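Structure representation:
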Amino acid sequence: MSSDGRTVNDVMSFVKTCQGADSQRRMKFYDGWAETYEQDHSILNYRAPDHAVDFLMENFSGPPEEVQVLDVACGSGLVAKLVSPIGEK
């Protein structure tokens, strides 16, 4: 349960309200979800960004400090947030 009392079931029920929505309704849904998007993904234990970074690091042949990742229009930039400390000197 989150600090505001939301549970996995609460978040899943909320996300299901967007199923089958047309593109305009889907855009409104995500605009409204923006405020709690990252918190809700944490509640759901969303691990895709972590897996993406693990994959990048396992398959990048150069030094980690040379990693350049463009994380554009892919959610809230969670991959970039996870990768950025790797390249810091």
Observations:
- Helices lie at 8-16, 23-33, 37-43, 48-59, 78-87.
- The mean pLDDT is 86.
- The two ends are 37 Å apart (CA to CA).
- Residues 18 and 26 are 6 Å apart (CA to CA).
